[in-house]
Amino acid sequence: MVQKAKILLVDDRPENLLALEAILSALDQTLVRASSGEEALKALLTDDFAVILLDVQMPGMDGFETAAHIKRRERTRDIPIIFLTAINHGPHHTFRGYAAGAVDYISKPFDPWVLRAKVSVFVELYMKNCKLREQAALLRLQLEGDGHAGGAHEKEPAGLLAELSARLAAVEEQAEALSKQLDDESADAAAVATAAHLERKLTGLRRALDALEPGTGGGAGILPAQNQP
């Protein structure tokens, strides 16, 4: 069973949270409510999220301050933030949103179809990154085990590399299709940049796998290349 991605919805008004849930329910992901910036930060301590929808105007800690805290934490700094606001004070106000680390800035009332499409892009990118991390962890574990086994297990790494290569090829194909989709839909620059970052990670993992093929002289030491930005 494929694990669902979590989407954090932050708004101090219950009716707004209910509306967001109605719009995003079609994505069939896990929607998590937070009625304040403090509550959102608490949720981010324990759970991983694909994207955060953050209301700007909230009593106490507003959206800008909440985003600043999110971006200061190593665990959460890379989570995409979409700001939602009922007011628009012009370019300066919008710039402040992007400066706070938002990938998008949407004024209310917004088009439900547009919001759902934007969120779905980040959910899909999150799922691709999860698959990539799983494949990398599996390869590391197997290589560590093979380093201590030896003997009768000498032929096992070749079979494992072939299996991982096939799985990686499937993820590469999906990532390529996603990139083409983003180009066709003239997607946000942030979404395109995130997709490009994912492709770079995939390229690094592919090089690591190729280097580990028999006769290439590669070894486990090349694996960290996949973690380069």
TrEMBL record:
Chain positions found as 4-aspartylphosphate: 55
Alphabetical keyword list: Coiled coil, Phosphoprotein
UniProt-recorded name of the protein: Response regulator
InterPro entries, sorted: Bact_response_regulator (IPR050595), CheY-like_superfamily (IPR011006), Sig_transdc_resp-reg_receiver (IPR001789)
Residues covered by the Response regulatory domain: 6-123
PANTHER family reported for this sequence: RESPONSE REGULATORY DOMAIN-CONTAINING PROTEIN, STRESS RESPONSE REGULATOR PROTEIN 1
Coiled-coil positions: 161-188
